[in-house]
Amino acid sequence: MTRRSRPEVTAGLATALLIVLAVRGSAAAEGATATTCAIAAGRDASHNTLTCNFGLTPEQLREATKAAVEGATGPLMDRIEAISRRLGITSNAAQTLLRIVGEQPDVPDERLAEVLTKVATDYVRLKAQVAGLNPDNSTAKALVASAKAEIEAGHLDRGRELLRQATQAQLAAAEMARQLRDQAQAAADAQMLGAARSLAAEGDVAQTERRYLEAAELYGQAASYVPPGHLEEHSALVERQAGALSSQGYERGDNDALRKSADLYRTVLAERPRERVPLEWAGTQNNRGNALLRLGERESGTGRLEQAVAAYTAALEEFTRERVPLDWAMTQNNLGLALAVLGERESGTGRLEQAVAAYTAALQERTRERVPLDWAMTQNNLGLALAVLGERESGTARLEQAVAAYTAALQERTRERVPLDWAGTQNNLGLALQRLGERESGTGRLERAVTAYTAALEERTRERVPLEWAGTQNNRGNALKALGERESGTGRLEQAVAAYTAALQERTRERVPLDWAQTQMNLGTALQRLGERERGTGRLERAVAAFTAALEEYTRARVPLDWAMTQNNLGTALFRLGERESGTGRLEEAVAAYTAALQERTRERVPLDWAQTQMNLGLALAVLGERESGTARLEQAVAAYTAALQERTRERVPLDWAQTQMNLGTALQRLGERERGTARLKQAVAAFDAGLSVVAAVWPPEWVADVRALRATAQAEIRQRQMR
């Protein structure tokens, strides 16, 4: 049995259906009420396989379509009514559908029924779709209702026009809604911006009242209120937040605030790229450098300081002298600060010289006439770098230049105008005067230094600027200690210990490890001086403990010169203890400490410090030599003193020269006592005479008497040996 394919079966069924429909259609034309050609709503005419011939021949359908096109349907109304009933639509609608078919020029007569069926199907679907329209817009709803009626009546043109109007009404409403939405968003954005600005103003109040953490929180919250599309305003608020945290860190010793500040500035840099806003980018680089510099000053490493130098250097790529001369000068000043701090931690002077060059450059634009306070600031900073250079040189020229720079700064930095800046410069002036005073025989410069520090503390209070207060307390302790060393009493030294102890309340190892180490070292020195004037060893033991603590942060790798200085001072405390003990253990430890110090305290690098350690080494060797039967240690002591005198000249440091001469005289006297001739003894007398020529008028009488007694003993021994 042969199986036919599905297309042939379908074709057969379609033919059969057409025949049945044709018969029923004929019956309907004779008055039957059957409506089997009615089209179900929603059916897609393009897939309809059923075609009505409406009980009309193709010629009759052609007459009907032609009449509909020409508007002369009167004689054919019965025929049209039959079609409308068969399709289930109004006669007007039927006329419209016939017109649509009739206007198609390429439809042959035999396909008129098929095309009319498809048009009717589309019409029914159209009515169903229009019936489903229910717009929210009241105007569109009325227009759609009218369109429904017109389409139902077969007035498609009018229905289409009404639908077009409904569309336009809804488009207009949508545009209005969008405008209202945009206006509402704009209104909301404006309100949020207003809230951000008023909250930022509240932050300004907190900033003015020096409540920096509160100000930072308010600025940060204000930044969170800024809506999208206002990036510059957001960046500005974040930068203000970073600035408040930077102030908190600088003035209150809050390192965590400084770290957050540096991070926030990095956020601002991402929002303000150099390509878009080069000058603002440069300003943020400068501000970030400030936060990093302040952090770096308090940390033991140099990483933050190097980052600060990099930030300032980047800023100068856009902050050029030609474009923004004052901003260029400001950044040069800040770069000098970072270089100076790095220079203080290095054994060489390269960074310090770079700092001086940066400050000098800044002063080309920061003139007193144009920006007096900025000029004063840079003069102050220049003085700092010159003072550190002066400490590392044997002469006093750089120190005198530093004093001149500070004095100039104070012409504009008055207490009434800028109290904290005035206090800072007073502190720095005290430092330079103290260094000069240490190299002079008199005490005038040292007294002036104490006066300057005391003045600074009137504004640098612990409550206002705890770390700066601690720094000035430390410095004041140094000046008092230097004065105490030149006096027979212990009052100044006790004051120095009190000042150092106060400083350590804020200078903690956790917060500022290097500053803590510095004050520990200074405290050790004052305790040592007191211990030298007391019978017990308690103060000396405390001094050794303080020096040992300082060396935990003052390492050779990190701060070689500070490490060497602390080794020198530790050696001196051990030496004093060794003098009071019967054994030689402490003295040997002292020699080891001095020898270690000389690895970094070289004559080329720090000639006067090298000379001081040579003299101290000589002292320890001399005492060891006195406790031994041989002369080797005494010979080494003489060599150390002689080396010291190469830099400790009478012209440069007369008191130190005199002290070293007398120590040399003592060692020569001890050697002379163990030798047969008088040469060493005569050299000793010459050394005593040289020393007395300087100190006789300035030392306490009892000290002078002791030296003269030693000289007299040497002279007597010479005479006795000459008589033999």
UniProtKB/TrEMBL annotation:
Q: Where is the signal peptide?
A: 1-28
Question: InterPro entries, from UniProt?
Answer: TPR-like_helical_dom_sf, TPR_rpt
Write one Pfam family the protein is assigned to. TPR_10
Annotated keywords: Plasmid, Signal
The protein in question is named Tetratricopeptide domain protein
Q: Which organism is it from?
A: Methylobacterium nodulans (strain LMG 21967 / CNCM I-2342 / ORS 2060)
